[in-house]
From TrEMBL:
<dbReference type="InterPro" id="IPR010982">
    <property type="entry name" value="Lambda_DNA-bd_dom_sf"/>
</dbReference>
<keyword id="KW-0804">Transcription</keyword>
<keyword id="KW-0238">DNA-binding</keyword>
<dbReference type="InterPro" id="IPR000843">
    <property type="entry name" value="HTH_LacI"/>
</dbReference>
<protein>
    <submittedName>
        <fullName>LacI family transcriptional regulator</fullName>
    </submittedName>
</protein>
<dbReference type="Pfam" id="PF00356">
    <property type="entry name" value="LacI"/>
</dbReference>
<keyword id="KW-0805">Transcription regulation</keyword>
<dbReference type="GO" id="GO:0000976">
    <property type="term" value="F:transcription cis-regulatory region binding"/>
</dbReference>
<dbReference type="InterPro" id="IPR046335">
    <property type="entry name" value="LacI/GalR-like_sensor"/>
</dbReference>
<feature type="domain" description="HTH lacI-type">
    <location>
        <begin position="5"/>
        <end position="62"/>
    </location>
</feature>
<keyword id="KW-0678">Repressor</keyword>
<dbReference type="InterPro" id="IPR028082">
    <property type="entry name" value="Peripla_BP_I"/>
</dbReference>
<dbReference type="GO" id="GO:0003700">
    <property type="term" value="F:DNA-binding transcription factor activity"/>
</dbReference>
<dbReference type="Pfam" id="PF13377">
    <property type="entry name" value="Peripla_BP_3"/>
</dbReference>
Length: 343
């Protein structure tokens, strides 16, 4: 088997020392004074010979491989464009490509499930740093990674481990409070908020925003948790004076489907009988009017997380990047909030 071109071959072709070739191909991180003509000759020779640096040798020399890991805790890696995680992954890939970084996907297990197993999570150290994506943080293995200095960035706000986990997330608190304000402006004073029976920072943030919006506008807002059993009794809610229902968006879409199913079962519609809003967007492919809510900046979250991770694994970590960043969510007016006739 013919060997590939080496730095010694580039040195001979360009008429310089192998040390000079190493400096040029390594990006001259040490700031060695080099003539521009020399640099161009070396790069031209490398391109002509088809030189590709050995990633193992590169890592030994620089402690960096230009490899960023991605570990998700979803049961199946989201590749369907209708999946709520898909735009995040698009953003991750786009930003990694622009930064010249390769991505390595850690699959968790051969059975297709993601686990919190220490060994599998610690395999992410094969990369220079790793992005994590999922509703819950496996405290102990992530604590060990963070304590060791291994660069970790979560996509989505995290509050675990004393706030030491870097993240890029969405500002659900402000967006949820703004949506409640829209309902108040439309004359709704008695509102029911239905969320999944599962705690995660994104769920707590949405509820905090709902309650903040209710307090600011002096609204009667009751929070209920949906455990997946049966359907909410929307007819009874309407009889009790509820004029608007707000639901949480999650990757399962369980609460939204429960409410729309209950509307159909009761012969009711939104916004005809009850106004309906979602803290985010409804599941893809839902027929009917555009549901009022807000747009979660998932693509931007993916891109921002890659930029943060790239800064953390870079040579100039002294730049102290912003470790916790929340992005605004754009309102979606939709067609499912009607003006309350009692106003």
């Amino acid at each position: 088997m013919a060997r590939g071109p080496r730095q010694a071959d580039i040195a001979r072709m360009s008429g310089v020392s192998q040390a000079t070739v190493s400096v040029v191909l390594g990006g001259n991180r040490a700031g060695v004074r080099l003539a521009e003509d020399t640099r161009r000759r070396v790069l031209a020779a490398a391109e002509e010979l088809g030189y590709v640096p050995d990633p193992v040798a590169t890592r030994l020399a620089s402690s960096r491989n230009n490899l960023l890991g991605l570990y998700t805790f979803t049961a199946t890696f989201p590749t369907d464009v209708a999946d709520s995680y898909y735009p995040i992954l698009v953003g991750v890939e786009e930003e990694a490509a622009e930064l010249g970084q390769d991505l390595i996907l850690f699959t968790g297990s051969s059975a297709g499930t993601r686990t919190h197993d220490h060994t599998r999570i610690h395999r992410t150290r094969l990369a220079d740093g790793c992005l994590f994506l999922g509703r819950h943080v496996p405290d102990e293995p992530i604590r060990e990674l963070v304590a060791s200095g291994f660069p970790v960035v979560y996509i989505g706000r995290r509050e675990e481990l004393g706030g030491t986990i870097p993240y890029v997330g969405a500002d659900y608190v402000s967006a949820s409070a703004e949506l409640i304000g829209r309902l108040a402006d439309a004359g709704h004073t008695t509102i029911r908020y239905l969320r999944e029976d599962d705690d995660a920072p994104s769920s707590r943030d949405r509820e905090q925003g709902v309650l903040a919006g209710a307090a600011a506008h002096r609204l009667d807002v009751r929070v209920d948790r949906f455990d997946g059993a049966g359907l909410p009794d929307l007819g009874r809610w309407a009889a009790e004076g509820v004029t608007a229902v707000v639901v949480e968006e999650t990757d399962t879409g369980a609460v939204f489907h429960a409410v729309t199913g209950a509307l159909a079962a009761a012969g009711m519609s939104a916004p005809g009988d009850l106004s309906l809003a979602v803290l985010g967007r409804p599941p893809a492919g839902v027929p009917g009017p555009v549901v009022s809510g807000f747009e979660v900046p998932r693509r931007e979250m993916g891109r921002g997380a890659v930029r943060l991770l790239d800064a953390l694994v870079g040579p100039d970590r002294r730049a102290a990047p912003e470790l916790h960043r929340l992005l605004p969510c754009a309102p979606v007016a939709g067609d499912t909030i009607r003006r309350n006739q009692d106003v």
